[in-house]
Design goal:
The complex is a heterodimer of chains A (447) and B (366). Chain A is an alpha/beta fold. Chain A is built from 19 helices and eight strands. The longest helix of chain B has 14 residues. The chains are: A alpha/beta (447), B alpha+beta (366). Chains A and B meet through helix 2 and helix 3 of A and loops of B.
Chain lengths: 447, 366
Amino acid sequence: MMDNKKLWDSVLVEMELSLSKPNFNTWFKDTAIIRQEEGAVYLSVPNTFVQDWLGSKFHNTILKALRTLSGNVQSLHYLISKEDMKEKQQVIEKTVQATKELPIQDTYINKEDNLNPRYTFETFVVGPFNEFAHAASQAIIKKPGIVYNPLFIYGGTGHGKTHLIQAVGNHIKNTSGKKVFYTTSEKFFQEYVNALQLNKPNFFKEKYRKYDVLIMDDIQFFSGKMKAQEELFHLFNHLYENNKQIIFSSDKHPGLIQDLEDRLKSRFSAGMTVDIPTPDNESRAAIIRTKTASDPHQLSKEIVEYLAYSVTGNIRELEGIINSISCQSQLKDREITLSEVKNFVKNNARPKKLVSTKEVVKTVAEFYNIEEQLIYDKTRKKEIIKPRQIIMYILREDFNISYPAIGEKLGGRDHTTVMHSCEKIKNDMKLDDMLIQEINQLRSIFV
Amino acid sequence: MNIECIKEKLSYAIAKAEKITGKNISLPILSCVLLEAHDSILTIKATNLDLGIEITLPVKVNKPGSIAISGAVLYNFISNITNDKNINLEVVEGNLKVSTKHTKSIIKAFPVDDFPNIPKVVSDTPFTFNVPNLIKGFKSVIYSSSVSTIRPVLGSIMLSSEEDSVIFVATDSFRLAEKKVAVKKHKEFNQILLPFKNVGEIIRTLEDYKDDVEVKLNQNQISFSYPDLYITSRVIDGVFPDYKQIIPKDEKTEVVVLKQDFVSALKISNIFSDKFSQVTFYINPKEKTFRITTKNMDIGENVNNLDAVLKGDELTISFNYKYIIDCFQSIDADSISLTFSDTNKPMIVRGVSDKSFLYLVMPMNK
């Protein structure tokens, strides 16, 4: 298959020969082939007039020319190009503007559905850490409202929840034309309060009930807002009964969101609940490669690996560092070396909070609601042993303290005891999801 | 084609259509109007590939047919005939013969096949709009649109519907005008962005009508139609900036002044303004001073003190005269309020007791 531009240029040459110059300029200016699919050629045209005109006057001529140049063309379709897709050829004149400009920003977010078209599956990196969530959303795309309703996605900040759920929304919108709406729980709450103030609760109800797919981000902020929860409950029931797809995201498992009514908790968990954990090293490397794919200065394999291993924070932080690196390389107009990257990461990395062993013990004891002193004591009660083992595990894994040192600080225990505890927690974590949750929550306190 | 009709009616219709014809010399067919006659109806079509218009007129059709001729020539000819009531249009040897009792002319025709189609907007959900309201809304904000084509969204007028009103907004990023027009019952629609150049033509075309107009909208086109008139325009496929967030919420200084006083003072000040049309306001509520000063190295300088009700903090701030003066045509109230929040933030101009219009102007750089 010939490349789009080349093919169209050749067609234009033929058309230009057979038409007067003004005619050619009027009807063929700003036209281009935007894609070819299975014998169908899609032509972008600037407006409806051109679409009509080409379709009625030149359709067969263009098709014939296309067929001679590229054998497998079967049909020709016209698409009206968006304003901002056209290349802006005007040179912005640098006039002295004495008046300040209003701080208006071009929004790329579509007002009708609040979706940001930037979030698509094409830019979503699938790795072992999020493949389950990805698979669930793919299933939903195929049968929205039928399988996994509601879909509840939870995971730490910057793990790609918003990207994933917006990509689902964008995909459903573009392929099926269903009415999709994206909102955050905060916006939903605001709107609800406004509707009450204006005394128009019905307007609000009607608005949300007409959507085919409702996506609500950061559901954890509903915690404590009882009236809004009730409204959400009714909305949920209405949509669910009518087989409308509902997608939620949160930073916690629905069961762990505080001050959330049980009837909501149970409904959130009714469909499919998926966790997006912290990305593993390989996934981080893949993300780095995707994010830098369009950069003129490619990062070397060593740098990608180094970044993947050393920047252990969330994806957003990783993006931040990649952006700074690509900015640096553009500025210097050369590839950045590994040592420069190392230096850079060192300067930009989030400073690790210095936490004393005592503080760790205190926090964990508080978390499990036991007396701090009991951790240091020799007691072998079950409810004390577990927190004690978790403390040892965290101190070893996150703070890199040696086994003997941990033993000594926790009431003069032998280093083999500490080793056993760490092993035990590690093994238990493989089987017990609740334990993982608890440890993750504890860790988020220390970071 | 051979038709007979009342000259006045034809002249009126051709005048409307002729305005829309393209002024593009390279493609002469666009400067034409297309006349189609059949079943006692004459249809006049014109387009500049951005706007399209169709006007129908009851006439006596002796012989159906169609022809494309220069709109300007036909209009100039017909509008200057004064003493004849009836007019006859006939195609003779491919050209158009226009004749009255006293005069006749042959106008050269262009191939009808070259005339572009005027797109018909198809929509499942047409709605109606009160035309005087529509025009009032357009006129209240149109001067704020950007004439630059770099950002098409700013070269447009945005319409959006609220529960019992329709909001018209335009901005060129230095000032912004917003007008709410109360509408009793109307259908909800999403943002519509109309190129402001087309809006000017739409205002001119619809101005004589008083009845509700039928509006049809799809992704690329909008149409306004009456039984005897159809006008369609391109709509801009984009998203208007979220302007609500730039309206300052905290007001630190407020001035209430008679509109007439303020406009006169501004006009006097402007005589002495510099090449950037800079006018400087000095507001001091404690001393009850509201002063407008201008200074031009070559001409001289001017100081104007105004009687006004002042509130809040002392402030010195400068504006471009041209951006302020535009808004007064849209304010019906006798007194206006000017509110300021900061020397970097826009000034808000409103009519006192009139919540329907809002105007933002950015100050000048120091």
